[in-house]
Specification:
alpha+beta; 13 helices; elongated
């Protein structure tokens, strides 16, 4: 355990880094989440309260709509108005039987109309008062004498309205004997009936019991209090009927707040919502203790909070276990490396997973196998090397002795006036000296030209028909450095393959365009067809991705080949070097080298 959890182990660093990436975001996010959830809870509670109050407001508005519908119908129905106007007109003291019967039918029609329009919706009490004292109602006189409404304190307000204006009479004690027990309060709306000259000939009063509204105000949440308040801050309807008619003094400061806010009333926080009714300056107010309003939402968020903490702990444990499992191969590799450091070269990891660690372990084991093989090979090579050194000491020939002998032969040939043979030996001596001198990796272009001149001279002595070498090199590129033996393979190919060892012309031109040293080698030999030229270009192009042949392992100069030239120049100058190959059957081949100007000694 101490080794697994030592402070600087890779496993510890990975686990600590992973835990930090989990712990710090969690530590930061949990308070932020708590803060945001608090706002979210408050917003959701307000939204819920508004939604509930909107539903209540819609139901209350529906009750008031039904009352207005009755007043509108009575006010605009032409047949009913005609009957009511005739009833309000002065009547004959004596009526015949036919007139009396028509009057009776009209009264029945009015009462039937009132009954029909009150069938839909909640029960309403409709009273029609004519200015001559005639009354119509959908309730019996024993329940309430309709003419008593003329003496109600609010009745005078009806004379001050016109058209479709209405007077809403707030909560009043119930006047109907049959309703007093169940609903001690009532709410009414009144309108005037006017003739064509706007003269009032009657009144319509529609009354609804307050308990119908109270039933609507009852919320599903018993902790919620909903009531309707007049513009004078008097309670018109309340879930607690004992408070109806009282002034809203206990929460008088509520009027100073917006539609939905959290307010402190009588030392306690409430979620208060207010909605204005459609037909009157009456206000629906909902009061819910704030703690109760957010209780369920808080419980949800607290549970989520707790689940997050539990999940964090569980996943931290799982992550630690997984990281330890995943890093076991690394720990094993570390132990094997320590054993190898101590000289146990036969130690192996033995890990063969399909992931990167498995491939790394396999490569490491393979490397150890190769190291052991190389140790054996080096040991064997050292033994053989010492044996070879002894053999070389016995058979060594001093190169200077060889050059001196060649020079002596050349001098004797000159003495015998065999100048051609002497020049051949001189050229051979130069070529041998250039081949043996391993220190000259890069030579000047002029030196390369001199070397290929000697090479052509030697080749011409081997052939019956001689090739003519024509050289045109600009002085600006004489000192440009190139790898040695890059022109010789091209010249050799031209003489052997291009001229086919026959007489012909080989032309070497070199000049500069400021960026490249351009070397052109052109012969007038047999050339190549299109297919053969394409194959040659493809072989040359692929040369950049193959191993460079070692010229020291080849016999003779011609075995280097054109591909080797391209590869050597490409490895020396990189992608900036280019080689062009052109050939026309029967006319010859042209090789163009574009060597970047180096601008200095290599």
């Amino acid at each position: 355990m101490t080794k697994q959890w030592k402070p600087h182990s890779f496993r510890t660093k990975v686990i600590l880094a992973s835990m930090i990436c989990i712990v710090f975001p969690t530590i930061i996010m949990l308070p932020i989440y708590n803060y945001l959830s608090k706002d979210a809870v408050q917003e959701q509670a307000i939204l819920n309260a508004n939604r509930e109050l909107d539903l209540i407001n819609g139901s209350v508005s529906k009750l008031f709509d039904d009352m207005l519908y009755i007043t509108n119908f009575i006010q605009v129905d032409s047949e009913l108005n005609a009957i009511l106007k005739s009833k309000n007109a002065p009547q004959k003291e004596k009526q015949n039987q036919q007139e009396a019967y028509e009057q009776y039918l009209n009264d029945v029609k009015v009462l039937k109309t009132i009954d029909n329009i009150t069938l839909v919706g909640e029960k309403s009490y409709v009273t029609i008062l004519l200015t001559n004292g005639k009354t119509y109602a959908n309730y019996p006189n024993s329940d309430y004498e309709a003419r008593n409404m003329f003496h109600e304190p609010w009745f005078d307000q009806l004379d001050n309205i016109s058209g479709y204006e209405s007077v809403w009479i707030g909560t009043q004690p119930t006047v109907f004997e049959s309703e007093k027990k169940e609903s001690p309060y009532q709410i009414s709306v009144g309108r005037t009936l006017r003739s064509e000259n706007s003269k009032i000939y009657g009144y319509v009063i529609v009354t609804m019991m307050e308990n119908k509204i109270r039933d609507v105000l009852k919320s599903r949440d018993r902790s919620e209090t909903v009531f309707m308040m007049s513009e004078e801050n008097r309670i018109l309807s309340h879930t607690d009927k004992e408070k109806i008619g009282n002034l809203f003094t206990e929460f008088e400061e509520a009027n100073n707040f917006g539609d939905t806010e959290i307010v402190r009333l009588s030392g306690e926080e409430y979620l208060m919502s207010k909605k204005q009714t459609t037909f009157k300056e009456w206000t629906l107010i909902s009061l819910i203790p704030y703690e109760r309003a957010v209780f369920k939402l808080n419980s949800i968020f607290k549970n989520i909070y707790l689940i997050q903490i539990v999940l964090f702990v569980v996943f931290s444990i799982i992550l630690t276990y997984l990281l330890k499992t995943l890093t076991n191969p690394l720990v094993k590799m570390g132990k094997v490396v320590e054993r190898v450091e101590n000289g146990e070269m036969n130690a192996r990891t033995g890990i063969r997973n399909d992931d990167e660690i498995g491939r790394l372990s396999a490569s490491f084991d393979h490397m150890l196998d190769r190291i052991n093989e190389m140790i054996e090979e080096i040991t064997d090579t050292q033994v053989k090397k010492r044996e070879a050194e002894l053999d070389m000491l016995q058979a060594q020939i001093n190169p200077h002795f060889l050059f001196n002998v060649l020079n002596s032969i050349r001098m004797k040939l000159l003495h015998k006036r065999d100048r051609e043979s002497a020049e051949m030996i001189s050229s051979l001596s130069k070529l041998l000296r250039m081949t043996i001198d391993k220190d000259k990796g890069m030579i000047s272009l002029q030196q390369e030209i001199d070397m290929v001149t000697d090479f052509v001279r030697i080749m011409n002595m081997r052939q019956k028909e001689k090739a003519v070498l024509k050289v045109d090199v600009s002085p600006e590129v004489h000192d440009e450095k190139i790898p040695r033996f890059v022109l010789q393979p091209i010249i050799e190919n031209s003489m052997i393959h291009g001229l086919n060892q026959s007489a012909g012309l080989i032309n070497i031109q070199s000049f500069t365009d400021g960026q490249y040293c351009i070397i052109e080698v052109e012969d007038d030999g047999q050339g190549m067809d299109t297919q053969e030229l394409s194959r040659l270009k493809e072989r040359v192009r692929q040369t950049a991705y193959t191993d460079i042949p070692d010229p020291r392992k080849k016999k003779g100069f011609s075995s280097l080949g054109l591909a080797n030239v391209y590869q050597r120049l490409w490895m020396t100058f990189g992608g900036t070097f280019r080689m062009g190959i052109e050939s026309i059957p029967g006319k010859g081949t042209k090789i163009t080298l574009y060597i970047p100007i180096q601008g200095g000694e290599q």
